[in-house]
Amino acid sequence: MFLIGGVQKTTLIDFPEKIASIVFTQGCNFRCGYCHNAELVSFRQFYFEGQEYKPSDFFDFMEKRVGKLDGVVITGGEPTLQTGLYDFIKQIKSMGFLVKLDTNGTNPDYLEQLYLDNLLDYVAMDIKAPLEKYAEIVQVVPNTEKIKKSIDLIMKSGVKSEFRTTVIKSQLSFEDFDKIGQLINGAEKYFLQKFEASKILDEKLKDEKTYTNEEFAVICQNLQKYVKYVKVR
Ligand code: SF4
What we know:
- By secondary structure, the protein is α/β, with parallel strands linked by helices.
- It has one domain (4-232): TIM Barrel, CATH 3.20.20.
- It contains seven helices and eight strands.
- Strands 1-2-3-4-5-6-7-8 form an eight-stranded mixed β-sheet, covered by helices on one side.
- The chain is globular, with a radius of gyration of 17 Å.
């Protein structure tokens, strides 16, 4: 199974320093209220521009991009829920492309297999909150041991990576960011993503705010105890 919910033919910003295509997988096991990809959260088959978009369609497209694109970003939804992810990535790699995987960290065993077989060139993982606050943000009861295991795998992998958090002021306090810093202590990069109320899963959050630039500056400074490269985007 590899359900594609959408494809973006080119991106200059989603795979650091690379020109890439993006594949959006269909289905997620979290329900973050601020999710911008609300149409990708359910597991129903989503039809791309009126028709089913099969992995073979994507490979046909990528054949024409050999030499023009550096890689592919696989995002979601949550890509590691797709049983066909391994074979999908393997085929992309066999075509000579680099692969960036975005994940919510709920499937460390799958992630580990992809690392073991050298199938990943960059991994970006969401850190939703300190572990004890995850359920509040993702609106399901997560297995936080698995989240922690994914963080450890990513940090020990030797493969380029980043962690990132979408920030709603009422959801995360300064103290919470300190706890997140401890969780990812020594990570390569950490991005704080300003919450934007457009196109979100839970309309109840539409009036929520993020921190001011001044407040973000203080948060970043505190986090630099744990991660040298901290940026707001
Ligand atoms: S933000 Fe990511 S993890 Fe959360 S519901 Fe959306 S796709 Fe899933």
